[in-house]
């Protein structure tokens, strides 16, 4: 049983690393590129120092959420956050 948990943990880590690698290409690029690739965000949060584009997608009762933190002065992606986006 421990071996199967380690296998699952390893696969989740691999998928998470792959997701982060894919999203890291958006760091330092204009928000237009994010919109071009992902479409219009489901939500834009302006209640922080960043403009946050929130993209959500539900697949088999699991909601994938991707957030891109955009500097409002430069319109450049400075960081991102991804949750439950494992394919």
Written account of the structure:
With 87 residues, the protein is an alpha+beta fold. The chain has a single domain (2-83), classed as Beta-lactamase Inhibitory Protein, Chain:B, domain 1 (2-Layer Sandwich), CATH 3.30.1450. The protein is 36% helix and 34% strand. The protein contains 2 helices and 4 strands. It has a 4-stranded antiparallel sheet with strand order 1-2-3-4, covered by helices on one side. The longest helix has 23 residues, at 2-24. The radius of gyration is 15 Å and the shape is globular. The relative contact order is 0.19. The mean pLDDT is 88.
Features:
4 strands, globular, single chain, Beta-lactamase Inhibitory Protein, Chain:B, domain 1
Morphology call: globular
Order of helices and strands: HHEEEE
| Secondary-structure class | alpha+beta
What is the total number of structural domains?
Answer: 1
Major β-sheet annotation: 4 strands, antiparallel
In round numbers, the mean pLDDT is 88
And the CATH topology? Beta-lactamase Inhibitory Protein, Chain:B, domain 1
Oligomer: single chain
Helix % is 25-40%
Strand content: 25-35%
In spatial order, strands of the major sheet run 1-2-3-4
Question: Which stretches are low in confidence, meaning pLDDT under 50 for 5 or more residues running?
Answer: none
CATH level-1 class = Alpha Beta
**Count of discrete alpha- or pi-helical segments spanning 4 or more residues:** 2
